[in-house]
Task: structure prediction
Amino acid sequence: GAGVSQSPSNKVTEKGKDVELRCDPISGHTALYWYRQRLGQGLEFLIYFQGNSAPDKSGLPSDRFSAERTGESVSTLTIQRTQQEDSAVYLCASSVRQGRNEQFFGPGTRLTVL
Amino acid sequence: AQRVTQPEKLLSVFKGAPVELKCNYSYSGSPELFWYVQYSRQRLQLLLRHISRESIKGFTADLNKGETSFHLKKPFAQEEDSAMYYCALKSGANNLFFGTGTRLTVIP
Result:
């Protein structure tokens, strides 16, 4: 079966514009995670979805960042009024459920804000 | 607050030599630690987790609570081990807290 997919693979945008990043998790995976990786840094947790529960948004860096997920399907990460410091690779991961299960990562979306 | 430290950004070893990638953590609770690996042009993937006490591709890692370390070791490095390695700590119930990574290069 297909793994986690993300689109677009690359996105170049101008400062101040909004962007939407998409993640398709592995079918049947109830947990979905978004991470950000800035150049030379580790992965930063952004947000976590588990089924129909309220998402854990504790990692979102500002109110310009938001994410949605309908049920156990696709998730979109939206960044409004992008800034240059938002330039990073955004990684999505899914797992069967929260806890000890392995997280499977997508290929990432490389966002460049000019 | 939790923290994962990988002190070496780059590590080069010769083929057949032992390799150790260092990871130290700071966490007030009972830690669960993982090593993830990203080979060239591939996705980030789980290599091993401490609770499984397993050896994957010849790699092992022992959790040392006294030294708050989870170093990754392999007795004889192979060229195919060249990759980016990330140590990660499960923080709370949900997310992983990653170190900055070590790029391992195995010289033929």
